[in-house]
Specification:
The complex is a heterodimer of chains A (about 80) and B (about 230). Chain A is of the alpha+beta class and about 80 residues long. Chain A is about 30% helix and about 30% strand. By secondary structure, chain B is an alpha/beta fold. Classes of the chains: A alpha+beta (about 80), B alpha/beta (about 230).
Protein backbone atom coordinates (compact mmCIF):
# COMPACT_ATOMS: atom_id res chain seq x y z
CA UNK A 1 0.00 0.00 0.00
CA UNK A 2 1.28 3.42 -0.89
CA UNK A 3 0.70 6.56 1.07
CA UNK A 4 -0.22 9.86 -0.56
CA UNK A 5 -0.09 13.02 1.53
CA UNK A 6 -2.22 16.07 0.84
CA UNK A 7 -1.11 19.25 2.60
CA UNK A 8 -3.70 22.03 2.77
CA UNK A 9 -2.64 25.56 3.71
CA UNK A 10 -4.48 28.88 3.81
CA UNK A 11 -3.48 31.00 0.82
CA UNK A 12 -0.65 33.44 1.63
CA UNK A 13 -2.96 36.47 1.33
CA UNK A 14 -5.48 35.02 3.84
CA UNK A 15 -4.96 36.07 7.44
CA UNK A 16 -4.36 33.08 9.75
CA UNK A 17 -5.45 34.11 13.26
CA UNK A 18 -4.78 30.63 14.67
CA UNK A 19 -1.20 30.64 13.39
CA UNK A 20 -0.74 34.13 14.81
CA UNK A 21 -2.00 33.01 18.23
CA UNK A 22 0.53 30.14 18.19
CA UNK A 23 3.32 32.50 17.16
CA UNK A 24 2.46 34.96 19.94
CA UNK A 25 2.58 32.19 22.54
CA UNK A 26 6.10 31.07 21.60
CA UNK A 27 8.25 33.71 23.37
CA UNK A 28 6.33 33.16 26.60
CA UNK A 29 7.25 29.47 26.40
CA UNK A 30 10.91 30.28 25.79
CA UNK A 31 10.94 29.58 22.04
CA UNK A 32 12.50 32.66 20.50
CA UNK A 33 13.34 33.58 16.94
CA UNK A 34 10.13 32.49 15.17
CA UNK A 35 8.81 35.43 13.18
CA UNK A 36 5.70 33.82 11.68
CA UNK A 37 3.54 30.68 12.04
CA UNK A 38 0.99 29.40 9.51
CA UNK A 39 -1.25 26.52 10.52
CA UNK A 40 -2.56 23.98 8.01
CA UNK A 41 -4.00 20.50 7.61
CA UNK A 42 -2.27 17.25 6.56
CA UNK A 43 -4.21 14.31 5.12
CA UNK A 44 -2.54 10.88 4.87
CA UNK A 45 -4.28 8.69 2.30
CA UNK A 46 -3.58 4.96 2.17
CA UNK A 47 -4.10 4.06 -1.48
CA UNK A 48 -5.19 0.59 -2.60
CA UNK A 49 -3.43 -0.45 -5.79
CA UNK A 50 -0.77 1.43 -7.75
CA UNK A 51 -0.30 5.16 -7.36
CA UNK A 52 -0.21 5.89 -11.08
CA UNK A 53 -1.17 9.02 -13.00
CA UNK A 54 -4.86 8.09 -12.89
CA UNK A 55 -4.84 7.57 -9.13
CA UNK A 56 -3.03 10.87 -8.60
CA UNK A 57 -5.46 12.67 -10.87
CA UNK A 58 -8.36 11.34 -8.78
CA UNK A 59 -6.63 12.44 -5.57
CA UNK A 60 -6.06 15.93 -6.99
CA UNK A 61 -9.76 16.08 -7.89
CA UNK A 62 -10.61 14.97 -4.33
CA UNK A 63 -8.37 17.67 -2.87
CA UNK A 64 -9.80 20.33 -5.14
CA UNK A 65 -13.47 19.53 -4.50
CA UNK A 66 -13.41 18.35 -0.89
CA UNK A 67 -10.21 18.38 1.17
CA UNK A 68 -9.43 22.01 0.35
CA UNK A 69 -11.68 25.01 -0.21
CA UNK A 70 -9.79 26.63 -3.06
CA UNK A 71 -11.45 29.97 -2.35
CA UNK A 72 -9.18 30.30 0.70
CA UNK A 73 -6.77 27.34 0.60
CA UNK A 74 -3.98 25.87 -1.56
CA UNK A 75 -3.04 22.19 -1.56
CA UNK A 76 0.00 20.06 -2.43
CA UNK A 77 -0.15 16.33 -3.26
CA UNK A 78 2.92 14.22 -2.46
CA UNK A 79 3.61 10.49 -2.82
CA UNK A 80 5.46 8.97 0.16
CA UNK A 81 7.72 6.07 -0.64
CA UNK B 1 -53.56 27.79 0.95
CA UNK B 2 -50.18 28.79 2.25
CA UNK B 3 -46.70 27.96 1.05
CA UNK B 4 -44.41 25.16 2.26
CA UNK B 5 -40.99 26.03 3.62
CA UNK B 6 -38.55 23.16 4.21
CA UNK B 7 -36.15 23.28 7.17
CA UNK B 8 -33.20 20.90 6.89
CA UNK B 9 -31.85 18.91 9.83
CA UNK B 10 -28.26 17.66 9.51
CA UNK B 11 -26.50 15.72 12.27
CA UNK B 12 -25.33 18.56 14.52
CA UNK B 13 -27.96 21.11 13.48
CA UNK B 14 -29.16 23.16 16.47
CA UNK B 15 -31.67 25.72 15.23
CA UNK B 16 -34.04 23.64 13.11
CA UNK B 17 -36.85 23.80 15.68
CA UNK B 18 -36.59 27.58 16.09
CA UNK B 19 -36.52 27.96 12.31
CA UNK B 20 -39.64 25.81 11.93
CA UNK B 21 -41.36 27.89 14.60
CA UNK B 22 -40.39 31.16 12.89
CA UNK B 23 -41.79 29.83 9.61
CA UNK B 24 -45.08 28.94 11.33
CA UNK B 25 -45.36 32.28 13.18
CA UNK B 26 -45.07 34.02 9.81
CA UNK B 27 -48.06 32.01 8.58
CA UNK B 28 -46.26 29.42 6.48
CA UNK B 29 -46.20 25.64 6.70
CA UNK B 30 -42.91 24.28 8.06
CA UNK B 31 -41.76 21.01 6.47
CA UNK B 32 -38.90 19.14 8.21
CA UNK B 33 -36.30 17.87 5.71
CA UNK B 34 -33.74 15.20 6.57
CA UNK B 35 -30.14 15.37 5.33
CA UNK B 36 -30.16 11.81 3.96
CA UNK B 37 -33.42 12.27 2.04
CA UNK B 38 -33.08 13.67 -1.48
CA UNK B 39 -36.83 14.29 -1.65
CA UNK B 40 -37.73 17.93 -0.95
CA UNK B 41 -41.43 17.04 -0.43
CA UNK B 42 -42.70 19.75 -2.79
CA UNK B 43 -41.48 22.66 -0.68
CA UNK B 44 -41.51 26.16 -2.19
CA UNK B 45 -38.45 27.41 -0.28
CA UNK B 46 -35.77 26.04 2.04
CA UNK B 47 -34.10 27.27 5.25
CA UNK B 48 -30.66 25.88 6.12
CA UNK B 49 -30.49 26.49 9.89
CA UNK B 50 -27.56 27.08 12.20
CA UNK B 51 -25.56 24.63 14.27
CA UNK B 52 -22.47 22.50 13.74
CA UNK B 53 -23.46 20.09 11.00
CA UNK B 54 -21.23 16.99 10.89
CA UNK B 55 -19.32 18.56 13.80
CA UNK B 56 -17.89 21.21 11.43
CA UNK B 57 -15.21 18.57 10.69
CA UNK B 58 -12.86 19.46 7.82
CA UNK B 59 -14.43 22.95 7.46
CA UNK B 60 -17.78 24.36 8.58
CA UNK B 61 -20.33 23.17 6.02
CA UNK B 62 -17.81 21.16 3.96
CA UNK B 63 -19.33 17.72 4.60
CA UNK B 64 -23.01 18.79 4.71
CA UNK B 65 -22.53 20.31 1.29
CA UNK B 66 -22.26 16.78 -0.16
CA UNK B 67 -25.29 15.33 1.66
CA UNK B 68 -28.14 13.89 -0.45
CA UNK B 69 -30.61 16.65 0.49
CA UNK B 70 -28.12 19.30 -0.65
CA UNK B 71 -27.90 17.77 -4.14
CA UNK B 72 -31.61 18.51 -4.63
CA UNK B 73 -31.40 21.91 -2.95
CA UNK B 74 -28.47 23.03 -5.13
CA UNK B 75 -30.35 21.95 -8.25
CA UNK B 76 -33.57 23.72 -7.21
CA UNK B 77 -31.74 26.86 -6.01
CA UNK B 78 -30.14 27.16 -9.45
CA UNK B 79 -33.65 26.94 -10.92
CA UNK B 80 -34.81 29.85 -8.72
CA UNK B 81 -36.12 28.27 -5.51
CA UNK B 82 -35.60 30.64 -2.53
CA UNK B 83 -32.99 29.39 -0.02
CA UNK B 84 -32.01 31.10 3.24
CA UNK B 85 -28.79 29.99 4.96
CA UNK B 86 -28.41 31.09 8.57
CA UNK B 87 -24.98 30.82 10.24
CA UNK B 88 -23.94 27.20 9.54
CA UNK B 89 -26.43 27.39 6.65
CA UNK B 90 -24.51 30.37 5.25
CA UNK B 91 -21.27 28.41 5.62
CA UNK B 92 -22.85 25.50 3.70
CA UNK B 93 -23.97 27.87 0.92
CA UNK B 94 -20.44 29.21 0.45
CA UNK B 95 -19.11 25.63 0.34
CA UNK B 96 -21.62 24.84 -2.46
CA UNK B 97 -20.49 28.00 -4.29
CA UNK B 98 -24.12 29.10 -4.58
CA UNK B 99 -22.74 32.12 -2.70
CA UNK B 100 -19.19 33.42 -3.20
CA UNK B 101 -16.46 33.76 -0.58
CA UNK B 102 -15.68 31.60 2.43
CA UNK B 103 -15.88 31.66 6.21
CA UNK B 104 -12.84 31.70 8.48
CA UNK B 105 -12.38 31.48 12.25
CA UNK B 106 -13.32 34.82 13.92
CA UNK B 107 -10.31 37.17 13.82
CA UNK B 108 -10.19 37.29 17.66
CA UNK B 109 -10.52 33.46 17.87
CA UNK B 110 -13.34 33.58 20.44
CA UNK B 111 -16.87 32.30 20.17
CA UNK B 112 -19.12 35.35 20.10
CA UNK B 113 -22.73 35.52 21.31
CA UNK B 114 -24.40 38.92 21.30
CA UNK B 115 -27.33 40.97 20.13
CA UNK B 116 -26.12 42.43 16.87
CA UNK B 117 -27.23 45.55 15.06
CA UNK B 118 -27.43 45.21 11.27
CA UNK B 119 -28.36 47.44 8.37
CA UNK B 120 -30.51 45.98 5.60
CA UNK B 121 -28.92 47.09 2.34
CA UNK B 122 -30.87 45.13 -0.25
CA UNK B 123 -34.66 44.73 -0.05
CA UNK B 124 -34.99 43.09 -3.46
CA UNK B 125 -34.17 39.54 -2.37
CA UNK B 126 -36.74 36.82 -1.71
CA UNK B 127 -36.02 37.08 2.02
CA UNK B 128 -35.82 40.84 2.62
CA UNK B 129 -38.71 42.40 0.65
CA UNK B 130 -40.61 43.33 3.83
CA UNK B 131 -37.76 45.46 5.20
CA UNK B 132 -37.16 49.11 4.33
CA UNK B 133 -33.96 50.03 2.50
CA UNK B 134 -31.38 51.02 5.13
CA UNK B 135 -33.51 49.69 8.01
CA UNK B 136 -31.56 48.93 11.19
CA UNK B 137 -32.46 45.67 12.92
CA UNK B 138 -31.31 43.82 16.06
CA UNK B 139 -30.94 40.04 15.97
CA UNK B 140 -28.77 37.55 17.87
CA UNK B 141 -25.38 36.46 16.56
CA UNK B 142 -23.49 33.37 17.78
CA UNK B 143 -20.56 31.82 15.98
CA UNK B 144 -16.86 31.05 15.96
CA UNK B 145 -16.33 30.64 12.20
CA UNK B 146 -18.01 33.87 11.14
CA UNK B 147 -15.30 35.85 9.40
CA UNK B 148 -16.49 36.39 5.82
CA UNK B 149 -13.64 36.63 3.31
CA UNK B 150 -13.32 36.72 -0.47
CA UNK B 151 -10.79 38.15 -2.86
CA UNK B 152 -10.89 41.89 -3.50
CA UNK B 153 -12.43 41.50 -6.96
CA UNK B 154 -15.30 39.33 -5.69
CA UNK B 155 -16.06 41.80 -2.89
CA UNK B 156 -16.01 44.74 -5.32
CA UNK B 157 -18.38 42.81 -7.58
CA UNK B 158 -20.76 42.08 -4.68
CA UNK B 159 -20.76 45.78 -3.72
CA UNK B 160 -21.24 46.99 -7.29
CA UNK B 161 -24.17 44.63 -7.90
CA UNK B 162 -25.85 45.49 -4.57
CA UNK B 163 -25.42 41.91 -3.36
CA UNK B 164 -24.30 42.86 0.16
CA UNK B 165 -27.66 42.35 1.89
CA UNK B 166 -26.67 43.01 5.53
CA UNK B 167 -23.82 44.91 7.13
CA UNK B 168 -22.73 44.87 10.78
CA UNK B 169 -23.30 48.18 12.58
CA UNK B 170 -21.44 49.53 15.65
CA UNK B 171 -19.29 46.41 16.09
CA UNK B 172 -17.72 44.09 13.53
CA UNK B 173 -17.99 40.92 15.63
CA UNK B 174 -15.73 38.59 13.65
CA UNK B 175 -13.47 40.54 11.29
CA UNK B 176 -15.65 40.07 8.21
CA UNK B 177 -14.40 42.09 5.24
CA UNK B 178 -16.16 45.46 4.87
CA UNK B 179 -18.49 44.58 7.79
CA UNK B 180 -20.41 42.14 5.56
CA UNK B 181 -22.96 40.11 7.55
CA UNK B 182 -24.95 38.62 4.66
CA UNK B 183 -24.98 38.38 0.87
CA UNK B 184 -27.17 37.15 -1.97
CA UNK B 185 -26.63 35.47 -5.33
CA UNK B 186 -27.09 37.34 -8.62
CA UNK B 187 -30.78 36.42 -8.87
CA UNK B 188 -31.68 37.26 -5.26
CA UNK B 189 -33.25 33.89 -4.40
CA UNK B 190 -30.33 32.60 -2.32
CA UNK B 191 -29.43 34.62 0.80
CA UNK B 192 -26.91 33.76 3.52
CA UNK B 193 -26.09 35.57 6.76
CA UNK B 194 -24.30 34.81 10.02
CA UNK B 195 -26.80 36.34 12.53
CA UNK B 196 -29.96 34.45 13.52
CA UNK B 197 -33.34 35.95 12.52
CA UNK B 198 -35.17 32.79 13.70
CA UNK B 199 -34.24 33.62 17.32
CA UNK B 200 -35.92 37.04 17.11
CA UNK B 201 -39.50 36.40 16.04
CA UNK B 202 -41.36 36.63 19.35
CA UNK B 203 -41.36 39.66 21.70
CA UNK B 204 -41.67 37.30 24.70
CA UNK B 205 -38.39 35.54 23.95
CA UNK B 206 -34.84 36.89 23.98
CA UNK B 207 -34.29 40.64 23.91
CA UNK B 208 -37.93 41.41 23.26
CA UNK B 209 -37.63 42.26 19.60
CA UNK B 210 -39.12 40.56 16.59
CA UNK B 211 -36.92 42.04 13.87
CA UNK B 212 -36.17 38.55 12.56
CA UNK B 213 -39.77 37.95 11.59
CA UNK B 214 -39.30 40.14 8.49
CA UNK B 215 -37.28 37.38 6.79
CA UNK B 216 -40.18 34.97 7.06
CA UNK B 217 -42.96 37.44 6.21
CA UNK B 218 -40.86 38.46 3.19
CA UNK B 219 -40.84 34.90 1.88
CA UNK B 220 -44.58 34.58 2.62
CA UNK B 221 -45.16 37.67 0.50
CA UNK B 222 -42.93 36.30 -2.24
CA UNK B 223 -44.58 32.87 -2.35
CA UNK B 224 -48.21 33.59 -1.53
CA UNK B 225 -49.09 37.22 -2.01
CA UNK B 226 -46.84 38.06 -4.96
Amino acid sequence: MARVVVDVMLKPEILDPQGQAVQRALPRLGFDGISDVRQGKRFELEVEGPVDDDALARIREMAETFLANTVIEDFVVKVES
Amino acid sequence: MTARVGVVTFPGTLDDRDSQRAVRIAGLEAVPLWHRDKDLHQVDAVVLPGGFSYGDYLRAGAISRFSPVMESIIEQAKAGMPVLGICNGFQILTETHLLPGAMLRNDHLHFVCRDQKLRVENTHTAWTANFAQGQEIHIPLKNIDGQFVADERTIDELEAEGRVVFRYLDVNPNGSLRDIAGITNATGNVVGLMPHPEHAVDPLVGTGGSDGLGFFTSILRKLVKA
